[in-house]
Design a protein that fits this description.
The structure is a single chain. Helix 15 (263-292) crosses helix 20 and helix 18 runs parallel beside helix 20. The chain has a single domain, classed as MFS general substrate transporter like domains (Growth Hormone, Chain: A), CATH 1.20.1250.20. It is mostly helical. Helices cover 82% and strands 0% of the residues. The two termini are 35 Å apart.
């Protein structure tokens, strides 16, 4: 019989259990959005702000989540996965507590940014950990389980947030991700603690953050005002060209030229980004629509519970699709599903049909449960193992920037063209993603490492 320590180590290393643990972390990072959206009306009233301003709770978090992701990926390559993953989970937990205790909206936004910076470690380093620990069928099974568990918990987020809001107010809902700190001890034991030892290209990291932040500020500007639009335009116009020059001058810097010119990485990330854009748009827009009908946060959360059931079948569905049709075609199936979800949600919001809203979230949860592991699988197979962390970081940056764009579009445009109109406008993103997949030749596959 194995000693207790050995049995624990074996259990944590099993694709089922460890992937479920990582999936819970994914889900908690997502509940930072889904559990909060149902409580936005109460939050806005208590802090004396408008609903459009309150939506920055979501956009600020998702922007930080997106722009910090490549930094965590690069740190994982440099010093190993263990330390940055631990710091990231800890930052998410601390940010959750500070958000719950925030006395004013500016303090709340600062805490949410900290929370997003910490949570950014989870999508890139958790997937890098999976790629490090397993290969082949085990890796596909683990990726599917992570996406499934994450999607289930995220879909339950509105119900959890509504219940916590009913018990103790919006502050309890914001504090939910603090539970992620419980995952630190088991992951500390199995995560690699050594990396390449390279130094961080801080200039490149800052330029990435500036350009991505500028994009989201521009999208959010219809509700945020002229100042946000001006700042966003300056950040994007200045940051993007300087970033391109930095990549040319430092081909092995923060954004390695070999990665940012890898067509498989870029194509997979851009196409798949339409799925979280649609997902976050619905996670924000559906509760806002229900609140406009006079629904309580708890009732809204109950309405979206059926989407959680998708998480139970997502791992098997993702594994089957990745095995039979491959990563690229799996993403191609997720994009039309996102289109159908947005059209269904727009119809439901327009005619006040709760069933259609619930169905839309079910559809987008299924698309996310397939799209995310498919993107990770495509990117992981297209680059050498030594560059997998930064490649996944760049791909996840694009992927989560999609999430920021989806949340920003709904938050920024719902007050201008209405929630149904914002959903209809977002259909352009999965259409563009589908078109991206049709461009170019076959996906690149990295040569296996040699001894």
């Amino acid at each position: 019989m194995l000693p207790a320590a050995a049995r624990f180590h074996q259990d944590v290393l099993s694709p089922g259990r460890s992937a479920a643990l990582l999936g819970l972390l994914f889900g908690l990072a997502a509940t930072s959005t889904s559990a909060v959206t149902v409580a936005l009306p109460e939050l806005a009233g208590e802090l004396h702000i408008s609903a459009a301003t309150a939506a920055w709770m979501v956009s600020g978090y998702t922007v930080a989540l997106a722009v910090a992701t490549p930094a965590h990926g690069r740190l994982g390559d440099m010093v190993g996965i263990r330390l940055p993953l631990t710091i990231g989970i800890g930052g998410m937990a601390v940010g959750s507590v500070l958000s719950a205790l925030a006395p004013s909206f500016p303090v709340l936004i600062a805490a949410r940014v900290l929370q997003g910076i910490g949570a950014a470690a989870i999508p890139v380093l958790a997937t890098a950990l999976i790629s490090t620990l397993w290969s082949g069928a085990d890796r596909s099974a683990a990726l599917g389980r992570v996406a499934g568990v994450g999607a289930t918990l995220s879909a339950l987020g509105p119900l959890l947030g509504g219940g916590l809001e009913a018990i103790g107010g919006w502050r309890w809902a914001v504090a939910l991700p603090v539970l992620g700190a419980l995952a630190i001890p088991p992951l500390w034991r199995v995560a690699p603690a050594r990396g390449t030892g390279e130094r961080m290209d801080l200039t490149g990291a800052v330029l990435v953050a500036l350009a991505a932040s500028g994009l989201v500020l521009l999208i959010q500007s219809p509700s945020a005002g002229v100042t946000a639009a001006a700042v966003g335009a300056v950040l994007l116009v200045v940051g993007a060209p300087l970033l391109a020059l930095r990549v040319r001058a430092r081909p092995h810097g923060f954004l390695p030229r070999e990665i940012v010119t890898n067509t498989t990485v870029l194509r997979s990330a851009f196409a798949a980004a339409a799925v979280p854009a649609s997902w976050f748009a619905l996670l924000l827009g559906a509760p806002l629509a229900a609140a406009s009908w006079g629904w309580s946060p708890l009732a809204t959360g109950a309405l979206l519970v059926p989407a959680a059931l998708v998480g139970f079948v997502s791992p098997a569905l993702a594994r089957t699709l990745l095995t039979r049709v491959g990563a690229r075609r799996s993403i191609a199936l997720a994009c039309p599903t996102a289109i159908l979800a947005l059209v269904t949600a727009a119809t439901g919001a327009a005619v006040q049909a709760p069933v259609l809203l619930a169905l839309a979230v079910v559809l987008i949860s299924a698309a996310f449960g397939v799209g995310q592991p498919a993107m990770i699988s495509a990117v992981g197979a297209a680059v050498p193992a030594a560059e997998r962390g930064i490649a996944l970081g760049i791909a996840t940056l694009v992927f989560l920037t999609g999430a920021s764009v989806g949340a920003a579009l709904v938050g920024g445009l719902s007050g201008v063209i209405g929630i149904p109109g914002a959903f209809c406008l977002l259909v352009a993103l999965p259409l563009a993603g589908l078109a991206t997949l049709l461009v170019g030749g076959p996906d690149r596959v990295a040569a296996p490492a040699t001894a």
